[in-house]
């Protein structure tokens, strides 16, 4: 089974003592440790790995890296499966299971290939043009389009893998571990700087792994790489991250790195991490991201077996894989000659080199001629044959300006083509960082021009070609970056490099046709999206002249590869069509991530129980034991209601609401915000913050207050108590606790720094049990025998301090239910003990713990508002009928001026009123819209909406509150609530549904 | 009125992590050791550091200078005093000592603008130490705590995962203290257990 017929003996860096079995499309194959999936497939003679997106044409492995547009596979099975993964970057593991994509029923026979035959019906913008009409049919079209769109399959269930996130900081971050990056790391590391070096591939070295035709200081490139890595590994402040993609470059030198943790690197614990997202802040960044080879655009240039020339060299020299049995090279520059020499050295038959250049010269060309390899200078490939694998090509001579082919055609058989159309520097991260690019005319490429952040680009991504220059630039950049971050040291000496020189290239963006009148065949520019040269020309002729429009119209540069091999070529073709040049066209925006990233990595461990913090009170344990149902109030988990067996929710709430008025109800009020306020000017400060008057509140007394924003709208409410001289205890709503503290600090710090006042949050220092109902005074008397609880000694809206159940407590006689009520505050650690004492001693009164839902009903019976329910940021105190709380005599308070604006005085503002419907058992849905004039069907003029609506067991009927235009004037009138299947008739009332004489607070 | 203090039932109170830390133990060599400092006394002191009377009187009570450099703390035998803001400090002391310190500060500062507030139960302190402590904290905290930039004596207010914290370094082991709001403490404890799981965690009672 371990055939690997294309593995070259004793060549490359794979470990031949470690065979690994893997499954591709149901068949088992063997590769070696150190292989990628792509190299292992090629070793087994497999080029065909996928079908193209639109035409379903057979496609082979094009590249050996991140730029791969074709070889996208589905990795793994079940919910851990990963679609659209580049075979060129999948590290081979034993037992790996991989499937090809976008084919049915099989890779060899794909019925979708019919699209290829119908290609004349599927021009650029086909979907836009076709599915425009009739517009009502879109829902039907969409169903089918969605079914045929996409490549791999997303898993259906939750991702079973573990993803980690971590922050990191360093002096120098180096992206790319090729010759430039390694030497930069070496120089920076030697200064003692904190260095992070990342490389997306499994092994560091970049081109050093495949360009083995050079020597560095008399060593092979591989030896130099190995020695350099050994030095770096010995440096305690250098972090080496392989299999790690720098996915995004953001402001302030903040980058994200996505590390794929190899199973081999896993520790022994059961917590195996699949990927780790690094959020790194670097003082200096060195970009050494290399360059990507450009394909050539010729007729049917997408057949399996056609690949990039340098990738072919990488498969040969790094993985020991021969690309085929008869290799043709097609190039516009010298680099493909290096591939030819490597092939020759390993006795792989070469069909020839087709070179677009009329008269190639230089040492590499001389060597090829000397070796007797067939060379076709000034020739181009005009067509290819072979369905599932390239079989032959036809070549012809180019005319002087490269616009036509002339002379006699010649057919050459081959099973593999290595093509090279020049190099595109990998400027993605540089561009993401805000850097400006510049067009280089000589090599027709974009180069980094002006950096916008503390970074430097070196090596091939900066247009540097020779190895010696890459090493030199790397050492210099590493040392300079380290020095710029206060590390001292000099760059090591530049090593001596022996290498062949590469000369010019000849750019011909589209290879001319053999017969200009025969328009068959496809000239692919973007392999992944099946965008051809004629699609681009058509789009340009149809008016899509902007590169961003071109991209969206043709899908050029979209997909998982984001046009890494195609963008620049497409721009050049667009430029030619429009009669201008690539630099005038500009380029599309480079966006993160550089290569596709798993969403799981961005979620990290913020999943399941750790998705969002759940805040609980000191009494939470008891609520759980009591079988409470909980509701989320911001991040708090509050007891909602405490059902007894066989009770419905409504029955529970009715019972709780009744108990609170008939005997004793007990509420955990710990979550309310609490702010300790101290200072000589505390009263003056409160006077400015609240709408009512605070200067004369005596120690020991409490007062309810409303806070407005500057616009006069209600922001928060609560009771604030004057504990003792210049010491106040403020309460806020549960959700408003943090924002109110910020609000106080902001006004103090920015407007009134002269006031002597300090605020300290004590929300969680205190646990609060609130008891209410006619028997609560007796209960408290039992637990606090030393306190005089009589109405005279302890009147409504006052505070006392003393022991309750043996715990030092602050007791507030305040009420949110309108009943006689005490709020007992004890330090959090005693909250549960207090609660248990109340339950125990309250048993004889049938004390009833009630939750937030009963609390809502109880306060609504009394018409008390809840900020955020009766208010929505557009409601004034007057709208709420709370004129009584707005001081008319105070000089100023926040929001005062706004309240006198003309709009605030209008009589048709939405005002809070009560509503009673005819059916006393029916509860109107909250949020329902209210109309004055019923119409047979919408639209109807809406005059308001329901803010609160409950069944009140104490009123023996349903009650509701609503904000209604000119509501006060409508009291006594009848309005309508149209619902989906019926209409409810309601009578407008005031908001006090119970205890009209307000006698209950005294018990 | 007399201010309340929680002293009376010192040993009976419940700390927010009590129900989570039922079991102590775990591997000693894992690289992470966790512990809750239960019921330490905590006071927030506010006042004007430019008023020399204020700083002098505070010095007299605490026995050390108030830290005026942002994000630092000073420690003596009685208490740790952490800079929280230009006019705000957290005093962390032994359980039960807070009322004495509070009274002493109130008495000394009675004629000067200031505020002293007992916040002992507002938050709790989780101690994390061991060779992997820094790695675990870096999983959830964006502050650079590499020894070149963060040392014993330094403190920082930040986020750890999704909780607000105050973090300060005690020693070079390294040992860190994490102050977290009581209601966030069980979330943070579970997060720490999850983040440290790959290394092995020892829990100290």
CATH H-level superfamily of the largest domain in chain B: Probable tRNA modification gtpase trme, domain 1
Helical content band of chain A: 10-25%
Overall mean pLDDT of chain A stands at 94
CATH fold call of the largest domain in chain A: FAD/NAD(P)-binding domain
Descriptive overview:
The complex is a heterodimer of chains A (1003) and B (205). Chain A has 1003 residues and is an alpha+beta fold. Helix content of chain A is 22%, strand content 28%. Chain A has seven domains: 15-148, 2Fe-2S iron-sulphur cluster binding domain, sarcosine oxidase, alpha subunit, N-terminal domain (Ubiquitin-like (UB roll)); 162-291 and 425-498, 3-Layer(bba) Sandwich (FAD/NAD(P)-binding domain), CATH 3.50.50; 295-421, FAD/NAD(P)-binding domain (3-Layer(bba) Sandwich), CATH 3.50.50; 513-596, Orthogonal Bundle (Arc Repressor Mutant, subunit A), CATH 1.10.10; 613-671 and 765-864, Gyrase A, domain 2 (2-Layer Sandwich); 673-762 and 869-895, Alpha-Beta Plaits (2-Layer Sandwich); 902-1003, Elongation Factor Tu (Ef-tu), domain 3. In chain A, strands 8, 9, 12, 13, 14, 15 and 28 form a seven-stranded mixed sheet that branches. Chain A has a six-stranded mixed sheet with strand order 41-42-43-40-34-44. The longest helix of chain A has 18 residues, at 467-484. Chain A is elongated. The mean pLDDT of chain A is 94. With 205 residues, chain B is of the alpha+beta class. Chain B has two domains: 15-38 and 122-204, Gyrase A, domain 2 (2-Layer Sandwich), CATH 3.30.1360.120; 41-120, Alpha-Beta Plaits (2-Layer Sandwich), CATH 3.30.70. In chain B, 21% of the residues lie in helices and 33% in strands. Chain B has helices at residues 52-62, 98-108, 133-138, 182-196, and strands at 32-37, 41-47, 73-75, 79-85, 88-93, 114-118, 123-129, 155-160, 163-171, 175-181, 201-204. In chain B, the strands form two sheets. Chain B has a six-stranded mixed sheet. A five-stranded antiparallel sheet of chain B has the order 3-4-5-2-6, with helices on one face. The termini of chain B are far apart. Chains A and B meet through strand 8, strand 15, strand 39, strand 42 and helix 22 of A and strand 2, strand 6 and helix 4 of B.
